[in-house]
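Below is just one:
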Amino acid sequence: MKKTKLKIIEAATNLFIQKGFSGASISEIAKEAGVNQSLIYHHVGNKLELWKTVKKHLINVNLDNSVKNNFKINSLIDFVSIIVINRINFYNKDPRIKRLIQWQQLEENQEIFLIESNMSPHLWIKAIAKLQDIGEISSKYSAEFYGFIIYSLVNSLIFDSYNVIKKDIKKNNDYINNIIEVIIQILRSK
C-alpha cells in the first residue's frame, strides 16, 4: 500500500474511532494525515468510501488465516462453533473494530456502510440453507431469520456494555459455550 494512502487510512481510523462517521470531516482527516484534501479523494474517494476502506483495512489486519479461509460445513455443531468463536475472537482482537461498528450503528442508513468480508453474517445464510436442506437445521424459519438470531446472540457478548461477562474469563468461556448450545437448540427446534 502506498505511504500516502496508508497515512490517510491511519488518520481516518483515529478520527472515525473518536468521532464516528458523522463527526469526522474530510478536512480534519487531511489535517491529521498531513495531506491535502484532494489526495484523499484521489487515493480513496469520498468520505463513505474512506469509511469502508478503514473498515476493510481493520478487518484484513485482524483476520486470522483460519477465518480468511471459507469454513467447511461438516456439521451444525462445527458451523455454529466456528461462527461464534471466530466472531468473538475477531472483535476481541482489536477494540477499534468494535468502536467503529458502534459508531456505524448510530448512523441513520446503516446499510450503506456494509462491506463484504469473511466476517459478514450474510455469508452464513448459504450455509444455514444447506444445513436446512440436509435436515440439520429446522426449516421452521428462513435462513435469514436464523442468521439474525445467531448474529444477535453472538453480538450480545461482543458488545456487552455492562461488562458482566468480560470481567471473569470463566464466565466468558461458559457464556460462549452456552451461546453455542442455545443457538444449536434454536436451529434444531421444530
